[in-house]
Amino acid sequence: MYVYFIKGTFLRLYYPCQASENPQLPDWVPCREYFNGLADFMKMNRALSERIFNYLFGNHFWLLSAEPFENVSEPCHFLCHFEMWLKHRRCCHAMDIYVCLFALGSCKIPAAWNASFKPDGKYPVIIFSHGLGAFRTLYSAICVELASQGFIVAAVEHRDESASATFYFREHAEPGTKKHPSCGIAKPVSDNLEEVWMYYRPLKPSEIEFPLRNKQVKQRADECIRALDILFDINSGKSVENVLQCDFDLSTMENSMDLCRIAIMGHSFGGATVIECLCKDVKLKCGVALDTWMFPLDEEIFPGVKQPIFFINSEKFQWIGNIIRMKKLDSAIFPRKMITIKGTVHQSFPDFTFLTGNWIGRLMKLKGEIDPHIALDLSNKATLAFLQRHLNMDRDFNQWNALIDGKDVNLIPGTNITIPQSSI
Predict the structure, then answer these.
(1) Which segment of 225-234, 255-264, 360-369 scores lowest on mean pLDDT?
(2) Active-site entry in 281, 291, 351, 408
(3) Which of 162, 268, 314, 379 is catalytic?
(4) Is 88 considered catalytic here?
(5) Which of 7, 240, 243, 412 could cysteine-pair with 340, CB 3.0–4.6 Å?
(6) Stretch (H or E) spanning 326
(7) Which is the catalytic residue, given 256, 346, 379, 408?
(8) EC number(s) in its UniProt entry (predicted)?
(9) CATH code assigned to 11-423
(10) Distance of CA 190 to the CA centre of its chain
(11) Cα(186)–Cα(193) distance, rounded to whole angstroms?
């Protein structure tokens, strides 16, 4: 993290890395407090939820193939029900800027922790914004794939009280006390810091929701833009101090980013954050909005969004009012695309969709009717094609251009929602 207090920036950075033997793999859920946050968000008893999470996602899920292989053509299998396809994946690494990472027995993310950066020209950049009740690690299947395809991806963890859990540090005045009980592998650079945890804030009784969500989406956008500013500093060779002790040398990333090719991407509340960010910062050249929740946004900002936007929706989540608000961003001048993935639900985009069997997944609305590997593969390929088109990249992602127009047996061009003519 750059600056340890609450206004600092908290993100996980994914990037192409050098191949290494026996890489350390980061935990999917970094520590117990995040499990507690998820429990609170889902209104579950913490003790009960910990047993459920450990059963579903816990220490009996481990990666069998630990090596981040080049050009993987077969899936890396997790025990039980977690199978994440990593086809044609280049080496990818994940690191946290200001993140405590230690084992809690969670699933492992198939990306090398603190591995050496792989210089190879200039990489385009993606800022990723999580959804309501999520946090920075829950979209690793998307972020790992994008990084393996040659992007630097910064997954922001928001401190607007929309994350199920997050934390920052404050100075501790009393020496000799336990400062950072959650930290295992990584500790703050100063012994005079203690963790302060923030959990999801539910609506208060009779509270009107829009003012809260609108305030949050504005803060989220500011956090994404601050994250981008940090990447600019890293790229220019400025000293950026990670608040946590870390073996990774950020100076190796100097002059490695193509900062003329920057995109913003997010899911649900993160999709709304995409639109808010595009209005605020023209350095962001395009946006990919996954199953966007449009409610938090002021419609007054829509005319100010002049960059291309790609809406990738699930079949089961969207409704008339939400789609109408998306359609208000339509433009005869600025590209707008929308597709819907058949058989998907709102949770088909986060990693949860891979972590359960079919009946539990459908019971908990984490899985749709479509194979989650097929769904996310379509989403990722369509995203890559869109990014190549609007970031003017010289890659082969245009082989998937048809997906942008919904041309696939598992895609619907536009939306599956019927909009009354009177609403258009």
Answers:
(1) 360-369
(2) 291
(3) 268
(4) no
(5) 412
(6) helix 320-327
(7) 346
(8) 3.1.1.47
(9) 3.40.50.1820
(10) 29
(11) 13
